Amino acid sequence: MSPLIAERRALKFSAVSASLFALTGLVLGLASGSITILFDSAYSLLSLVLASLSLLALQQARKPADEHFPFGRLTVEPLAVLLKGVVIALVCLFSLVSALWSLVQGGREVTLGLALGFGIVNVLGCVLTWGVLKRYARIANSSLLRAELRQWQMDTWLSTAVVVGFMLTVGLTLSPWAAYARFADPVMVLLIAGYFLPIPVRMMREALRELMFGVPAGPIQRDVVREIEAFDVEPEDVRIAQVGSFLMVDIQLDKQQIETAEEIVDSVEARCERLNLRPVTSITLVT
Fold first, then answer.
1. How far apart, in Å, are the Cα atoms of 127 and each of 133, 134, 156, 157, 266?
2. Would you list the DSSP string of 86-146?
3. Between the CA of residue 164 and those of 13, 57, 120, 156, 275, what are the distances in Å?
4. Which residues pair with 250 in a beta bridge?
5. Do residues 81 and 143 lie in contact, with contact meaning Cβ atoms separated by under 8 Å?
6. What band does 187 get if pLDDT is binned at 50, 70 and 90?
7. 107 burial via Cβ count (<10 Å: 0-12, 13-18, 19+)
């Protein structure tokens, strides 16, 4: 399976899963009166919208250069990731405000049996979706798919925290402190949304780095530079930037090295293929 096909299948699977979770969570959240479940279903609905955005970004990023976009549309992918991070951060902040308001109003009663049942099913579904996306991610290395994985990672831990919280709430109702059980639901939202807020912040930071043509994270730069060093090219003569699933490599060569340019480009493109990245290679002649 090619990386492009794997990426498309992963994003479509993510969109279908998100739609199922969003619809079920919305219905049961309203039925149980839990703002925690409503937050979870809102996040799933958001995942559906963002997965659709990722599919659109993938389609646009793969379009060839034309007269309107002579260098292609490479930055579409990090733009989509940046938008995802902004929207997820806003959802977390809105949930924090809603939970604080609920606490000020004296908490809220929740149908615990219904909420706990939904939470358990939701955890199983999130783990399944996350596992499938991780399998596709081994084939396709792209910022869109990494962002999708982060979304489902958040949703998996969110759903797990919801189940644990509801189980503790059930125990609280059987204790002498049963009167405080009505505060458990908004407190859970405060803890969960506050804990996961740094994740979209990291997404935005990484997307901004790619939009500013920053160096790739991890060992990618080192591997590519070593590949080029074999042709007696100094590391300072190699400039590398990662933009989504594209790796931009600019190599400065003098007149004596220009005869090996084609061989160098072929070597770099072979390395990028092993890294599941799409190379954009250029040679700069220096005098």
1. 10, 10, 6, 9, 40
2. HHHHHHHHHHHHHHHHHHHTT-----HHHHHHHHHHHHHHHHHHHHHHHHHHTT---HHHH
3. 27, 36, 10, 12, 39
4. 239, 282
5. yes
6. confident
7. middle
Residue of 163, 114, 130 lying closest to 13 (CA atoms): 130
Going by pLDDT thresholds of 50, 70 and 90, the confidence category of residue 141 is low
Per-residue pLDDT averaged across 153-179, rounded?
Answer: 77
Strand partners, 248: 241, 280
Between CA 137 and CA 146 the distance in angstroms is 7
What mean pLDDT do residues 271-281 have? 82
pTM: 0.68
Quick one: tokens of 124?
Answer: 């199983």
Average pLDDT over residues 7-17: 79
- As a whole number, mean pLDDT of residues 239-256 equals 85
- Which tokens hold the place of 237? 């003569």
Q: Would you say how long the chain is, in residues? A: 287
pLDDT at 54 over 80: no
35: pLDDT confidence band, cut at 50, 70 and 90?
A: low
